[in-house]
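idk why but the lab printer keeps eating my pages so im just putting this in chat instead. protein + magnesium ion:
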Amino acid sequence: MAKKKLTGAEIFLRALKDQGVEVVFGYPGGVTLSLYDEIYKQNRLRHVLTRHEQAAVHAAEGYARSTGKPGVVLVTSGPGATNTVTGLTDALMDSIPVVCITGQVPTALIGNDAFQEADTTGITRSCTKHNNLVKDVDDLARVLHEAFYIATHGRPGPVVVDLPKDVVNARGVYVGPDKVRIKSYQPRVKGDIGLIDRAVKLMAGAKRPIIYAGGGVINAGPAASARLERLVHATGFPCTLTLMGLGALPASDKHFLGMLGMHGTYEANLAMHHCDVMLNVGARFDDRVTGKLDGFAPEAKKIHVDIDPSSINKNVLVDIAIVGDAGLVLEDMIKAWKPTPAKDTALKSWWKKIDGWRARKCLSYGNNGKLAKPQYILQRLQAEIKDRDVYVTTDVGQHQMWTAQYIHFEKPNRLMTSGGLGTMGYGLPAAVGVQIAHPEALVIVVTSEGSLQMNLQELATISQYRLPIKILLLNNGYMGMVRQWQELFYGKRYSESRYQGDPDFVKLAEAYGAMGLQAERPDEVDGLIKKMLAHDGAVLANLPIDPTENVFPMIAAGACHHEMILGPKEPDLAETGEDVVLA
Amino acid sequence: MTATDENIQFHTIAILVNNEPGVLARVIGLFSGRGYNIESLTVAEVKHSESLSRITIVTSGTPMIIEQIKAQLERLIPVHRVSDLTVEGPFVKRELALVKVQGSGENRVESLRIADIFRARVVDSTNSSFVFEIVGDTGKLDAFVDLMAPLGLVDVARTGVAAIARGAAAL
Ligand SMILES: Cc1ncc(C[n+]2csc(CCOP(=O)(O)OP(=O)(O)O)c2C)c(N)n1
Ligand SMILES: [Mg+2]
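predcted complex ->
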């Protein structure tokens, strides 16, 4: 019996249903009208209307990163598609599974510079993991299922499916997800046992070991993070996390040294510099983490676990490379690990050294002055939320680094931030996606006035869906991070980094139906945070901060881990023997 | 890693891909986007029934870059197999060139003589021109073209390199 034929729009919705998709983030337009009509008629799929297609992708990213499920986006052709490019690139850089369906002009018009035509597959080829133009309705179901498979298997990433209007309207055959197998894409998930044994032996012989874990552990699911914790406890090794990895090991764990890299802690970076064996799980030796490559962990034997073979030996040549899923490899490592009491003494003296670095309290700061310090504000926030399950998104800049330093992530999938691309404007729409996924949860955006205004329009989305998102605006009146570099490296010439003419944020919040809060003095911070958290709707809290505050510690671009610049309020470091520069 | 002249190597890489729209753009985009070199590139369908094409790329780089290139190629979804012929054993490498030489008298005779030595065939001739077809490795073709230059060389078309491993094993 011949299969019943469905329209492209019906196939589309059926495929999404069979993939378990509950919500799409999108924005309609001419060529997607039939899809939207079908969404309306079936009235089953939840659609969240953002106010910009870039925001739809960031919302899908927030949804994906906070749930571990792929985020889905639906936009129209031409400008709708081109508006997604930043979001797609962001998802590619941070390995976030996103399936983005873009409308396209009818196949007969492709190549004719038709109204709202853009070469979407051409434009997005380098900012997606994969993309596809569907020319035949009978391919549609397969291509959609493949898109979900590719987005979520191996190293996750964004996939675009470009869908011409006539294909949506044509009738074709539906096939289910179980029929789909991509012969040319079968990523390896199980690590090589021989290599894992060698790695574990190397670790067992280490005198100054460190575990350096990243977003790959979070992408591998909560079980992978639990295994990381078990391995850390079994070995007794110190552990540092990248920005994308925060939460993979509870921040309160005594083995946790804090974040590493350009704005990492003194102890994490020095431990990286002096270690003799490094286990990297699910991180990619990014330049913001390694600093100058020639001087990166010069004495260390390096083990690298990554699901993406192209991450291995890309920046740093390693001694043992294990291709596989972080969770599965960690499991095998735990199995292979045998406690060796003999080495406890070596580890003890290593911890003693680390504790010495820790005692420097690199995150302390001076807290006097008329304006509140951002570090103080975040510490107050941390104190208020420490017993709650909180999702935090950030934008990009100083406030992002302070959030990473002062907010303690106890669980994976709780920090949503733009790491690889560093996309200002990520935080607010990402929070939309997080709150949609977790309607009851406390979702906080930590941002600054620059980034906030890059996707400010999403206040309307928040209003439309009554999302009780809390926006903590650390207002320094500057592109703080740009200002910091100009102060430190460009002779204090503050070229174009000052914002003037910013709106009254309280009135702005109120215009969008949110609560607007304004602090004037440091002693109002506490009350304001409490008030923000107590309100059951959306809040925009504007907190003026000391605009001269800089993020420390800092490793200047191209410097080594032991060449950290510490904050001005630090105790005298002269006798550490480390090459530390005081700002 | 800084690339010094000494550690730059040439590798011939064979890639089996789905013959689908955009696949060549993906491969070329990878090279341009990441700043890898393409010395030569050929592509054609090789298995019609399975819609598979074979791409042969000659590229150059440090050993670390060559490893990256292979890993990046393998990551592309429509790529089935990547084989670095240069490291995987002996292989045959061939290129075809069509070489047009214009002239008369002594030069014309000399061009025919050289063509004979190189086992190039004349595939077109007029009173004042020849088109030679020559097959061989890149070095042989280069040498032939160089020798034709003073004899009235006016046009060259080259296919780029096709390569295959010696012995019984297949890609
Ligand atoms: C879209 C985009 N444009 C430019 C930059 C470069 N950039 C990085 S941080 C920064 C300043 C961010 O200012 P703000 O959002 O106010 O954060 P602050 O540093 O003040 O906390 C800029 C301009 C960027 N990361 N993203
Ligand atoms: Mg700012």
